[in-house]
Design goal:
Blueprint (H helix, E strand, L loop, with lengths): L1 H29 L8 H17 L14 H28 L6 E10 L8 E4 L12 E4 L2 E9 L4 E5 L9 E7 L2 E11 L4 E8 L9 E4 L11 E10 L5 E7 L9 E7 L5
Antiparallel strand pairs: 1-2, 1-12, 2-5, 3-4, 3-12, 4-5, 6-7, 6-9, 7-8, 8-11, 9-10, 10-11
């Protein structure tokens, strides 16, 4: 009997180890943006998101517990109400944004989660393939460009932020100057200054501080005219051949709750 129990225990441990290994493999695969998502990973992600929604469902019985300090409960509820009011304001701003995007079919979404290790890299939203979301669709907020869809699951999607450190993630932008628009490349984020880097600006260009940066529309991925930010500072390279612009956005990348996905008019449901 002892040997039988020991054998069963080893089997259970083996099953647990196998499940953990499978989860690690799926997580590793999920970090590869260019890889096609498998059916197993899609099901795994959908199940994980569903469980997360259930676990994070708001608690409604704070005052029902015994021996709860009512003053403390009041402060908790006050903080919750203030947070909800802030999110409602953000949602209203997002809805107002839809009225100006006539060439697209906007779809509002809620941010589900963010990985602390990849805080400025991507976010997960509650819209997916079932909502008509496709890879590379543009994502914005009322404050301007936020990023693009990098992965699509059945009920959720991942958004690659414009603050991503992916060297291959380049966005064509235009800088509005006193002498017209000039074109450059948005690529990179400076954590020290909290600004977006724009490179490829000719040294003889008349770019100045507070000039507005928008998407140029070149390349076909991002539509023309989406606001990004304004020039905060300008740095010449060591050979004085070009300039790097440090752009200040209106986005608060630490607090993103609601976003809008821009679907082409033929992509809308």
């Amino acid at each position: 009997m002892f040997h039988k129990n020991k054998k069963n225990k080893r089997k259970r441990i083996g099953v647990i180890v196998s499940l953990v290994a499978l989860a690690i493999i799926l997580l590793t695969f999920s970090l590869q943006v260019t890889r096609k998502i498998t059916v197993v990973e899609d099901l795994f992600k959908t199940a994980a998101i569903t469980i997360q929604k259930i676990v994070m469902y708001p608690f409604t019985a704070l005052n029902g517990k015994k021996n709860v300090d009512q003053s403390e409960s009041y402060l908790i509820q006050k903080n919750v109400n203030e947070a909800l009011e802030k999110e409602i304001r953000e949602l209203k701003e997002s809805l107002a944004l839809n009225k100006t995007l006539t060439e697209y079919s906007p779809l509002n979404a809620t941010v589900l989660s963010r990985n602390r290790s990849y805080w400025l890299q991507n976010i997960t939203i509650d819209r997916g393939r079932k909502d008509g979301i496709k890879k590379d669709m543009v994502v914005v907020t009322s404050e301007g460009l936020l990023g693009k869809i990098s992965k699509v699951y059945y009920t959720s999607s991942e958004v690659k932020l414009i603050t991503s450190n992916d060297v291959n993630y380049k966005i064509s932008v235009s800088v509005t100057t006193n002498n017209g628009d000039i074109f450059a490349i948005l690529n990179g984020y400076d954590k020290k200054t909290g600004t977006i880097k724009v490179t490829g600006v000719d040294k003889n260009s008349d770019v100045g501080e507070n000039d507005v940066i928008k998407t140029s529309g070149l390349g076909g991925m991002f539509p023309r005219g989406i606001y990004i930010g304004t020039v905060k500072s300008i740095v010449h390279d060591k050979y004085d051949l070009s300039k790097t612009l440090y752009v200040e956005t209106k986005q608060n990348f630490d607090e993103i709750h609601y976003v809008t996905v821009l679907r082409g008019v033929n992509d809308g449901n």
